[in-house]
Amino acid sequence: MFSTGQKIFGLIFAIAFILIIIWSYRKDLKLHQLYYKKVWIVGISIIFVIGLFAILTFILHK
Known about the structure:
Radius of gyration: 21 Å
Number of strands: 0
Strand content: under 5%
Number of domains: 1
Distance between the termini: 47 Å
């Protein structure tokens, strides 16, 4: 399915991509702590709204 060269390239690309993402996140960590203090509230709100839509869907389709 994939040649050996393609597998090696994919592995190197994945490792490099993950390392760059980690480096970028660490570089911006102070900004994240400054600007995104209450982002967890947004996450909980989204989960709540999706749950509410799911419950309404099940209730309305009975």
